[in-house]
Amino acid sequence: MNKSLLNLPAGISAYRLPLTLLAAVCAFAISGCDNPKPTERNATEFDLVTTDDANEDIGTYILPQDTSILKEPNADQIFYGKRLLNETKRLLPDNVGAQMNCNSCHISQGKIPLGDPYINSHNFYPRVMPRSGKEVDLAGRVNGCFMRSMNGKPLPKDSDEMQAILAYMEWLSQNVPKNQKVAIKNAGSVDESLVGDPVRGEVIYQVQCATCHGNNGEGIKDSRGDIVFPPLWGDESFNIGAGMARTYKAAAFVKYNMPMGIQTKGLWGHGNVLSDQDAIDVSEFFTHKPRPDFPGKVNDWPNGNKPKDARY
Ligand code: HEC
Ligand code: HEC
After folding, report:
1. What are the two backbone dihedrals, phi and then psi, of residue 88, each rounded to the nearest 5 degrees?
2. Are residues 53 and 25 in the same domain?
3. What confidence score (pLDDT) does residue 270 get?
4. Closest CA to 249 of 309, 300, 206
5. Most CB atoms within 10 A, among 85, 139, 211, 238?
């Protein structure tokens, strides 16, 4: 073998070539022939408690992987529900007025505590809601978010789409009996005695939020017009009837979930970098910017007890 014939790079002499080749063959053998095992990740687990005693730990709920949907007899329906929750605006343009998907607020497909999870929703309804003053079933609750958070129109309860959304939530509940629940909180808490300062809030917005949600709260779309970062105010945002339009509800969401992708501890997406005052200031600022009206507001809280941060 002649070095110049092989055109070897400087530093690799001809006699070392077989070694180099050997190393390459070994590397291939390790990666290509003998498949390495994927690293096992521990499944996320939460305690199960009874609905009347949050301290009585009676078992474990294991957060299911989406691949386990394949084992379900109605797998197609559950997958359709999952897609509808992720791509609501694109798949249901007639029912969604805002540039919003359900999972714009229900973080990671409704699987994250403090990020508006759907984990307990299947078992939690029907129940009497203070806002409507009457009993609401889960389809009715979903339609509440269609009309307010999505600034859109309700889905017929017997439609394939509504049934698919409910099927996803039922699957996520993993057969937890009706008198039990998964010991998680849907939302974090903030000190509601603090008063929001919208001027300070605007500064926080520009520094911590505007890169993703836009200088004018308009959000960011991709080249096909699909939502990348959802809007926080304006015609394409949620309307004043949404829970997120209320300062303290928004602040509880923002404190534990935003800025997205930054966190100091805990699960992915849990912001937890803003103080209560920061979260309340920035929420006071963006919730009070112009957004669509909600005509159905006249029927809300018929029995009184309207929360202090309601917008009407
Ligand atoms: C702008 C944010 C936002 C969007 C978008 C949104 N939601 Fe919600 N949703 C919330 C908030 C906040 C709550 C909790 C409300 C409260 O505590 O009053 C909630 C509550 C719910 C609940 C009740 C959860 C429980 O267990 O009590 C369900 C179910 C739900 N939403 C489904 C949906 C569906 C389906 C969509 C899409 C059609 C949707 N949401 C879109 C913010 C949103
Ligand atoms: C790195 C990008 C990023 C930053 C920075 C960020 N967000 Fe978000 N935000 C998102 C994404 C993405 C979503 C939708 C959730 C999802 O897709 O998982 C979202 C959703 C929201 C929502 C619910 C949906 C809506 O449009 O109303 C609110 C409210 C929100 N963010 C507020 C804030 C606030 C306030 C800040 C600053 C303190 C902030 N965000 C910073 C990326 C970001």
Report:
1. -60, -45
2. no
3. 60
4. 309
5. 238
Does the Cβ of 254 fall within 6 Å of ligand 2? Answer: yes
The predicted-structure confidence for 129-143, as pLDDT tens digits, reads as follows 999 999 999 999 999
Task: State the residue range of the domain holding 58.
Answer: 47-182
Pocket of ligand 1 (CB under 6 A): 85, 88, 100, 102, 104-106, 116, 118, 120-121, 124, 141-142, 145-146, 149-150, 165, 186, 238, 242-244, 249
Chain segment 31-52, per-residue pLDDT in tens: 555 666 766 667 899 999 998 8
259 CA distance to ligand 2 centroid (A)?
A: 6
Ligand 2 atom nearest 282 alpha carbon: 35
Token pair for 210: 């505007």
- In this structure, are 73 and 122 located in the same domain? yes
Contacts of 215 (CB under 8 A, 6+ apart): 206
Here the CATH number for the domain that contains residue 139 is 1.10.760.10
Of 149, 182, 215, the domain-final residue: 182
What torsion do the CA atoms of 224, 228, 232, 235 make, to the nearest 10 degrees?
10
Length of the chain: 312
Do 10 and 69 lie in one domain? The reply is no
Q: What average pLDDT is seen over the chain? A: 88
Count: domains in the chain: 3
Encoding tokens for residue 154? 């309700």
Q: Tell me whether residue 17 is exposed, middle or buried, using C-beta atoms within 10 angstroms of its C-beta: 0 to 12, 13 to 18, 19 or more.
A: middle
